[in-house]
Amino acid sequence: MMPVLRPLPDWISSSVEERKKASLHRETEVIDAPQSISPTIDGTPFLSFCSNDYLGLAAHPTLINALAEGAEIYGVGSGASHLVCGHLSPHDELERALSDWLGVERVMLFSTGYMANLAVLSALGRHCETVIQDKLNHASLIDGALLSDASVRRYLHADLSSARKLIEKQSSPSMVVTDGIFSMDGDIAPIDGLINLLSDSKHLLIVDDAHGLGCLGDQGLGTLDEQGIAASSVSALIGTFGKAFGAAGAFVACSNAMAEYLTQFARPYIYTTAMSPAMAYASKSSLDLIRSKEGDELRSRLNSNISLFKECMASLPFELMPSDSAIQPIMIGASDRAIELSAALREEGILCTAIRPPTVPNNQARLRITLSAAHRHDDIKRLCDTLERLAN
Ligand SMILES: *Cc1c(COP(=O)(O)O)cnc(C)c1O
Fold first, then answer.
1. Which residues line ligand 1 (CB under 6 A)?
2. Molecular function terms in GO for this entry (predicted)?
């Protein structure tokens, strides 16, 4: 029997049509091989510059073996939320290892970074008059604040005097929130400056270092370490396993008192199934790798790729953004032009999706080039040579 489709209201398809007309339509595409710098689509190999697999760990044999071993020992599903009976020993071991790495009292696990940010901002925002955010903070931080009753104010990107003006206006407890490395721009937040502005302890400081942890700093300790700041000097530090760690899930690093509060009040922690114990086991092996000599080698390869890319691009007629991280956006402006350049690269076998509004502000569409420790120097040169040809 043919299924009968229930008719939908017109706005469902008219909204999508509007997106298409504005060159803002998006769709998924099937990658039919493991995530890597050389994925295949319909069997055709590409050279990829758009994943967040910064250290090339997503399909690393150590992680693949750990995931299989974790599943063998602890099964696949956690079966419940952390607070009911879904908190298994690999979760506990991963939390302890992360606490030890970061030098904090406690770490709590979350299913994704998006959920961790909803959890932290909604639970803490209940007691804050204002959530003060960098204008370019990740969508999940913006959405998390919307779940609280706090009013939301945004300061000019990475601008301490703009942040100071907002902080000085707060008579009641408030919260300042920033990305460590900004996800679409690749630049670094002035966290030391924010700490100085927040000498009054009634205000909280939250840092989301999704793109810094694993990549920057001694042992991959991230943006804070890069700036000589201990993780314990912020109220909560958020990290994810889906990027440099090459796995899935996220964590919040904080004090015992903060973890106790979040455990009671963070609904996206309480009302969701704990991450797979096998994934926790694999993430622990990724952490071990990131802290090891092999991790140091991957970070130094990544840094040398970043330097080479910036060097090769310096003489080309493209506008790079002020970034020293693995995120190296080429600013294009108009969405249709960004799509054209992305399509032209693709013709040449290079994969880099165009990033358009609303992910970035209007008229700031870009090619967000991401570099990986897995790229060889020849790969970087091929990208730059191709861009040079396309520019002419
Ligand atoms: C990717 C990202 C997240 C979301 O993490 P997921 O684990 O992918 O949900 C949160 N914050 C920032 C800054 C990110 O770049």
1. 112-114, 117, 138, 140, 179, 183, 208, 210-211, 240, 242, 250
2. 8-amino-7-oxononanoate synthase activity; pyridoxal phosphate binding
